[in-house]
């Protein structure tokens, strides 16, 4: 939640011209999970924080369940300006998977500590690897697992 509040503060700072003009700004936020997923209420709380922090001059419109595009399209949608404030797993895009971009080889047992460590580590690579978008945050969630249909993974892959 602390990171969401930090993003809300960044939104206020970036939105200062909108506040000065008293114009309403609609900020689109799309994600791929259904409203029943725990990430959706967190997104709603984040949106409420932004609206409150901006005195209502920024209204968040949330699009769950891949309404604006499939999960693997989200990174390119952000790059191409189709939506603002994406939630994206860039490694899910076919191009990123082919050329190895944006892959993060870590699993975390604790989302809060893992997210802080992952975000701190990735920031030195983000400017180069995600130069075509505005990078905000990398996060992990509990529990981190690797899913496979072939066999159980018990040691790191080499």
Main beta-sheet strand count, sense and barrel state:
2 strands, parallel
* Count of individual beta strands: 2
Order of helices and strands: HHEHEHHH
Mass-distribution shape: globular
Which residue ranges are poorly predicted, with pLDDT under 50 across at least 5 consecutive positions? 8-13, 15-19
Helix content: 40-55%
- Counted by DSSP, the helix tally is 6
End-to-end distance: 35 Å
In terms of structural class, how would the helical and strand content be classed?
mainly alpha
What is the spatial order of strands in the main beta sheet? 1-2
User: What fraction of the residues are assigned to beta strands by DSSP?
Assistant: 5-15%
What's the pLDDT, averaged over the residues? 75
Q: Which radius of gyration do the C-alpha atoms yield?
A: 17 Å
Describe this structure in words.
- By secondary structure, this protein is mainly α.
- Helix content is 41%, strand content 8%.
- It contains six helices and two strands.
- It has helices at 2-14, 16-21, 39-53, 74-79, 94-99, 111-129, and strands at residues 25-30, 58-63.
- It has a two-stranded parallel ribbon with strand order 1-2.
- Helix 3 (39-53) links the parallel strand 1 and strand 2.
- Helix 1 crosses helix 3 (39-53).
- The longest helix has 19 residues, at 111-129.
- Residues 8-13 and 15-19 have low confidence and may be disordered.
